[in-house]
Design brief:
By secondary structure, the protein is mainly α. The chain has five helices and two strands.
């Protein structure tokens, strides 16, 4: 974004009364009323609001995973070859995953057993993107159970 666009957006949010600004020397510091934003976003309580998250690496990694999973014939590969390709993918995107806060342990499993590690890495990345560190349902599933 251009600096001017960001400045105009912040000015409009301040004029609307949804953010506050404090000036210290030449710097401007912006703040929000957490509970008001939590109510607006239907999060219930302010602690559910993320303070900051760098979305670009998170979504870049998830995009690569999604594209890889959509490859034709992936489900026809042997479990060893599929796990090997998954390891190659994780090695390529691990900087983005780690930047997003997703633990990547490529040495945790060998051979075909890496597939389960890949599924868990993917689940953690999805939870990061959802803004949760917990699973969606009470059985520990989070919607990524249909991976090939």
């Amino acid at each position: 974004f251009e600096q001017r666009n960001v400045r105009e957006g912040l000015l409009q949010l301040r004029e609307a009364g949804v953010i506050d600004v404090a000036r210290v020397a030449d710097e401007r510091y912006y703040s929000i009323a957490l509970q008001d934003w939590a109510t607006l976003l239907r999060l219930g309580e302010a602690p559910n609001l993320p303070l900051h998250h760098d979305w670009i690496p998170t979504y870049r990694a998830l995009t690569q995973i999604t594209r890889w999973l959509q490859q034709p014939g992936l489900d026809k590969l042997s479990s060893f070859l599929r796990a090997s390709q998954a390891r190659t993918l994780v090695d390529a995107i691990s900087p983005d995953l780690q930047h997003a806060g997703v633990t990547v342990e490529t040495d945790a499993a060998r051979g075909a057993a890496f597939w389960d590690a890949f599924v868990e890495i993917t689940r953690r990345a999805v939870r990061v993107a959802q803004g949760t560190g917990r699973t969606v349902d009470d059985r520990g599933r989070d919607g990524i159970t249909d991976l090939p």
